[in-house]
Amino acid sequence: MNHGLFIVLEGIDGTGKSTQTRLLADWFREQGREVVASREPTDGPWGSKLRATAATGRLPAEEELELLLRDRRDHVAQLIAPALAAGKVVILDRYYFSTMAYQGSRGMDPAEIRRQNEAFAPVPDLLFVLDLDVDTALSRIGGRGDTANEFEKHESLAKCREIFLTLVGEPFVHLVATDPGPAAVQARLREIVADHC
């Protein structure tokens, strides 16, 4: 019986999380594993409301946090916990570490946000923090035809990156520089997964 494996990819916008999530999910499937790849905020009712605010202007920090917590509770109950219990590989593009970073950049306490989340949300087996300097990240966002939204301003992203980097040193956290490009990053992720398993 395979045990479930829970992997989370984090980092500021522009680090390639969505691409790496997809590539890693494909790799596991090639090995015959059942994979659930998802993202946060989700496309559920709370997550959709949050995604809409990225374009229209952010909500007050406390209101945003409440929506994130509601969205995550649903995500854990309906998808993450059942998939792990069934022995599947769960790969997430963002999780509560993004909440710590993005709400933390607005002045909220990242440690308190983590405590609230870990009261109900399982800690991942592996957390990949995809790291890139803010200027390069912003040029990548522009390069994909997007304009930086309220979540993607330089000062805010710099604070977010600082908070992500505070996680480094915990045994399940792996910092992966994304400068070498998508293929090299994916090779590094697979290497770390192979060592873990």
Fold and architecture overview:
With 197 residues, this protein is α/β, with parallel strands linked by helices. The chain has a single domain (5-196), classed as P-loop containing nucleotide triphosphate hydrolases (Rossmann fold). Helices cover 54% and strands 14% of the residues. The chain has a 5-stranded parallel sheet, sandwiched between helices. Helix 1 crosses helix 8 (182-196), helix 4 packs antiparallel against helix 5 and helix 4 packs across helix 7. The model has no long low-confidence stretch (mean pLDDT 89).
Quick overview:
The chain has 197 residues and is of the alpha/beta class.
Which class best fits the helix and strand makeup? alpha/beta
Q: How big a fraction of the residues is strand?
A: 5-15%
How many domains in all?
Answer: 1
Shape: globular
Assembly context of the chains? single chain
**Count of helix runs:** 8
Distance between the terminal alpha carbons, to the nearest Å?
14 Å
The CATH superfamily turns out to be P-loop containing nucleotide triphosphate hydrolases
Question: Spans of 5+ residues with little confidence (pLDDT < 50)?
Answer: none
Number of strands: 5
- Main sheet characteristics: 5 strands, parallel
Give Rg in angstroms.
16 Å
